[in-house]
Write a structure and sequence with these properties.
Largest sheet: none
Oligomer: single chain
Shape: globular
Protein name: Maternal g10 transcript
Order of helices and strands: HHHH
Radius of gyration: 17 Å
Organism: Thelephora ganbajun
Length: about 150
């Protein structure tokens, strides 16, 4: 995940002070996850905590604007522009069937084992064999299908 690059040449919109402490907490968690040792982990496993924190931060901004209506449109656009949330992921969350999507990589068809398919975490749990444990190799998700 790219680091948040804030230009701060322009003052943040009104209301940013209310959520700044929570966004700083996400930044600290991200820093800790980046500096965490990845000894004994697979290459992709070392990125899973970073993906989860990025997802949580984007979900927080999404919920503030769309669910709780606690921030203005101007602040929401500024947060997306400054990189506090993933605009493409939030755009997918607004579509039917993608409300719980974990990352954009899970819906891309080119990196999958079978041509034209999506990630295993997108398969509803009702369609899998009982007792099957699902874990995405890209982000560590255990099921982000809207039906699961």
């Amino acid at each position: 995940m790219p680091k948040i690059r804030t230009s701060r040449t322009k003052r943040p919109p009104e209301g940013f002070e209310d959520i700044e402490s929570i966004l700083d907490d996400y930044a600290k968690k991200m820093r800790d996850a980046e500096n965490e040792s990845h000894e004994g982990k697979r290459r992709t496993e070392s990125l899973w905590p970073i993906m989860r924190i990025s997802h949580a931060r984007s979900r927080y901004v999404h919920d503030l604007y769309y669910k709780r209506e606690a921030i203005s449109r101007e602040l929401y656009d500024w947060l997306l522009k400054e990189g506090y949330a993933d605009a493409n992921l939030i755009a997918k969350w607004k579509k039917t069937g993608y409300e719980k999507l974990c990352c954009l990589r899970c819906i891309q068809t080119r990196d999958m084992n079978y041509q034209g398919s999506t990630c295993i975490c997108r398969v509803p749990k009702g369609q899998l064999r009982s007792g099957t444990i699902v874990e995405c190799t890209h982000c560590g998700c255990r099921g982000c299908s809207s039906d699961s």
